[in-house]
Write a structure and sequence with these properties.
mainly alpha, 1 helix
Amino acid sequence: MADQKIEEELAHLRRVTEELSEVVARQAGEIDLLTRRVQMLMQRAAEQEAAGTGGVVLADERPPHY
């Protein structure tokens, strides 16, 4: 009886471990994608800043057509 309980618990733990491993792998992929996107956006912002065409309008700043 105790052996069956241990085997059931072990099977449960293996299943949970596999599920968590899949979650971690998926999240790692998402983090890699987001990291690449942030790097791309930072590069674009740096290029715009260097070109002087940042185009950022602050909340208290009036657009040029006013």
